[in-house]
Write a structure and sequence with these properties.
four-stranded mixed beta sheet; binds fe (ii) ion
Length: 418
């Protein structure tokens, strides 16, 4: 195995732990809702992934750190065995945080042994699995942030995870404009260069009618106008399921927004702050994104429209490395499309389905993506919690239409004259 691969392994693993550094052992055990997992569970589950798919089958003589961990830290791999209910992950007081860090160190030592001792042949077999394990861990880095945000943001004392980012945040964003695309036959899907998840393949052709994309994300100020126009009370703007969700969940604003003393505030990972109208709206469900777009006389982009527009763009933006963990206003002097990568995941109007001729990977790893292709919508572009080395134009994230705890927002689209 090349030295660089081990260095990358160590860097990704260290980053996960750095994200947990501000958390106490008590913080790391909280599960504030069934969809959000405790940080301690993320730390252990990502470790279990390497132990199960790399060490157990490929490191001769490897013995699991603790055989009971397979039950506690398997997420959804039916082929691997029984596991604790997702909603019960917050009941795991033992192993304690310290033991989970011991588990990580033991698996990291064994992984170093495996990677350093591998023959060129074995290296070729292991490299894609290591890459998958690291990309998997990066997905959980984002979840550590969104899940602790939910835990802290719904706590009565709403503690801050970190200090507010240094320097002033702009109070204006570039004006809303439209970028036109001619459509026609475009190719989408992973082009085979570097890592991609199986759900991004095969690359294939799609026909698009001419369309336009908004040059930036929808802002808090624009979303506030929707709220003030009684957007949440007008059934004609909503999908039936969406309006049901508004009623049953009592939604009247994005998740984490609070109206107190005549002012809108939002919980951020740096605590409760006044809404900045220039920032992208965040923590809205697909239903809200769809209703907002209808109210604005537009629609959400199809995932192929988004990808065709994003192809060739450099991966730069307000991503995890910026350390802000909160979306930022679109720079006023930007060119063409702002905020494509980072800030917020952009809901598309596309259902999460298999691409033509899609085939999941063989074995338990095949459960990674394919079995979730029902009842979820695709999101594109990454967020302020996504690592820069994790995102690309062909990346397909997916969540149920009612999910709001991810950094999810809105870019508008509309049809164009041929
Ligand atoms: Fe996972």
């Amino acid at each position: 195995m090349l030295k660089g691969d081990l260095a990358r392994y160590q860097a990704v693993r260290a980053r996960t732990e750095a994200l947990c550094a501000p958390l106490s052992p008590e913080d790391m055990m909280v599960q504030s809702m069934p969809d959000a997992s405790p940080a301690k569970w993320h730390l252990a589950h990502t470790t279990w992934f390497f132990e199960t798919f790399l060490l157990a089958p490929h490191l001769p003589g490897y013995r699991p750190f603790d055989p009971r961990f397979a039950y506690l830290f398997n997420s959804y791999y039916n082929a691997v065995g029984e596991r604790i209910l997702r909603s019960k992950r917050g009941t795991i007081s033992r192993p304690g945080a310290e033991q989970v860090f011991d588990y990580r160190r033991a698996v990291d030592r064994a992984m170093a042994e495996l990677l350093q001792g591998a023959s060129p042949d074995t290296t070729r077999t292991l490299a894609p699995l290591v890459e998958l394990g690291l990309n998997h861990e990066q997905q959980h880095q984002e979840l550590i942030l969104t899940d602790i945000k939910h835990a802290f943001g719904t706590s009565p004392v709403q503690p801050a995870y970190q200090e507010a980012p240094e320097g002033p945040t702009p109070s204006a964003s570039r004006p809303l404009g439209w970028v036109r695309y001619g459509g026609g036959v475009v190719e989408v899907g992973h082009d085979g260069r570097g890592f991609a998840f199986d759900n991004e393949s095969p690359r294939h052709r799609v026909y698009l009618e001419p369309y336009e994309l908004a040059n930036r994300l929808v802002t808090n100020g624009e979303y506030l106008a929707f709220i003030e126009d009684r957007g949440y009370e007008r059934p004609e703007l909503w999908l039936s399921e969406g309006f049901e969700a508004v009623r049953s969940q009592g939604w009247g604003a994005p998740e984490y927004w609070h109206f107190r003393d005549g002012t809108w505030r939002a919980y951020t990972l740096s605590g409760l702050t006044e809404i900045n109208q220039a920032e992208p709206v965040c923590h809205v469900s697909y239903y809200e994104a769809d209703a907002y777009a209808r109210w604005a006389g537009a629609r959400l982009p199809a995932e192929a429209e988004w990808e065709a527009a994003a192809a060739g763009f450099p991966i730069v933006g307000n991503l995890q490395e910026a350390g802000r963990f909160h979306p930022a206003p679109a720079p006023e002097a930007d060119s063409r499309l702002s905020q494509l990568f980072g800030d917020v995941w952009e809901w598309t109007g596309s259902a999460y389905l298999a691409y033509p001729n899609f085939r999941p990977a063989a074995g338990a790893i095949g459960e990674y993506n394919g079995k979730f292709m029902c009842g979820q919508m695709v999101l594109r572009g990454g967020s302020c919690a996504t690592p820069a080395t994790h995102i690309r134009a062909s990346y397909r994230n997916f969540f149920p239409p009612g999910a709001r705890w991810q950094f999810s927002g809105i870019r508008l689209a509309r049809g164009a004259r041929p």
